[in-house]
Prior knowledge:
alpha/beta; TIM Barrel; 8-stranded parallel barrel; 12 helices; 8 strands; binds 1,3-dihydroxyacetonephosphate
Amino acid sequence: MRTPLIAGNWKMNGSLALVERFGEAFSQPEVRLPDGIDIALMVPAPYLEAARRAFSAGPLAFGGQTLHHERHGAFTGEISGAMLAEFGATYVLVGHSERRTLFGEDDAAVCARVKAALTERLTPVLCLGETLEERDAGRTEAVVLGQLEAVFDALSPEERDRLVIAYEPVWAIGTGRTATPEQAQAVHAALRARLADYDAGLAEGMRLLYGGSMKAANAAELLAQPDIDGGLIGGASLQVDDFLVICQSAG
Ligand SMILES: O=C(CO)COP(=O)(O)O
């Protein structure tokens, strides 16, 4: 059995006050969360210390949204995995489509960042997804499997076991246009089948999250799919009540 993971990606949103609000809301004794799920928020880097304090007593883990592949050096504006780990982060997103398209991260850069995260004992959440043009051209599987292979081919079997994968169709991110449960399940099944080519145990244990306009109203039917093991949530992870409902849908 795979432990579901509900992860919020705040992107360049939120505030110190929102970190506090989440910390308080999730540590209330009357809050009912399913047993045996993992919950994490990927906060903007300036909020890491606040997250460390506000989430310490509750069920929320936290992580970064990207990292540089070097530990330190003359890379103005960048953040290293060592720094994330120093603040108590346990996860880091790698290869989010916004990083790929807006900040020019190619497969080689994504791969180097995954390796850097693993070196720091962070759990990389490797993000994959096709654009609308690629889907319309019938290339969805080729694109996402290519993104998967670009990283997994470069890792050892022990390293592969330590990743989480998030399938986020680019056309569903921030658009309100969610993939149908069937569309998402089909891609997740293809990803798991490709992982089985590496190793059956790897495929069985790998957590595959869906992301792209997941919200309180559609989380349950997406999370009910056999190969969807959690969610990566943008907009709805900025609302305490919505995020709570999504977490409750994972039980
Ligand atoms: O990009 C996403 C999470 O990483 C998804 O964002 P939305 O949930 O806002 O569509």
